[in-house]
Amino acid sequence: MSDSMRQFGLDVRITRDPMGFGYGDEVIGPVPEIRTLDQIRPSLRDPGCSGPEQVYAIAMDVAKQQHLAELKKRMLLFGIVTYAKGQLGSEPIRSQGHIHRVSQHSGWSPPELYEIWQGKAIIYMQERVERDPGRCFAVHAGPGEKVLVPPGWAHATISADPDQPLTFAAWCDREYGFEYAAVRAYKGLAWYPLLQGNNIIWQQNPHYQSGRLHAIGPRHYHEFGLNNQSLYAQFEADPARFQFIAKPGSVAEKWARFEP
């Protein structure tokens, strides 16, 4: 069984058994990497919880073949991820909280621009991983909606509906890297998402000082020149549009006053 994501600009199929992706004739992409429950236990509220053995599949550098040279030149990479349905003990299916490693070519911890393809998502983000995590946001988004995580912020992607899989894509820096150590040292991010029935509630992580979580919806990021087309279609129309992902320093003034 597979689900076609062609409406998002790429001939990609999401498969469930086995978990992963299939690519159309003009699309190239890697064999997906599977993240198992045992691999992500250190970042969970209850590391001994039960849940699906295969939690999510990730494929970095998916593209139409004719665009690969352009993407390499621009230091851009398009990734896709699909989650299992279900839950991790009392928590929803989610990624490990992380910060993006500083990119050598830009000198910045890169931003990331998400697009939800299937299911319901919450993109959780906080300014830093310190006793005081700064501003904390939970951005709720559905199919076709986009969420931008600014440079240097710690974040995680959460499935907001345990009854259906979540699939999303993202523009990333080609030199992407994930740093987990700081988040693990604090036993996770500043807020734990918990399932209460089919609803998400939030519990503060006691390893951080108390603060406030802002639950919001997505916006359009007009200041970055984005529109309502799919992320990949916007790249096809204007390959320079997403240069701010690989070169965030070129729009430093926008990050200084950024609001998710």
TrEMBL record:
It comes from the Bacteria. Its EC number is 5.3.1.9. Keywords: Gluconeogenesis, Glycolysis, Isomerase. SUPFAM superfamilies: RmlC-like cupins (SSF51182). Pathway: Carbohydrate degradation; glycolysis; D-glyceraldehyde 3-phosphate and glycerone phosphate from D-glucose: step 2/4. InterPro entries: G6P_isomerase_prok (IPR010551), RmlC-like_jellyroll (IPR014710), RmlC_Cupin_sf (IPR011051). One of its GO terms (biological process) is gluconeogenesis. Coiled coil: none annotated. It is an enzyme of class 5 (isomerase). One of its GO terms (molecular function) is glucose-6-phosphate isomerase activity. GO terms for cellular component: cytoplasm. It catalyses: alpha-D-glucose 6-phosphate = beta-D-fructose 6-phosphate. The keyword tRNA-binding does not apply. Residues 54-208 form the Glucose-6-phosphate isomerase prokaryote domain. The keyword Endoplasmic reticulum does not apply. Belongs to the archaeal-type GPI family. This is glucose-6-phosphate isomerase. It comes from Chania multitudinisentens RB-25.
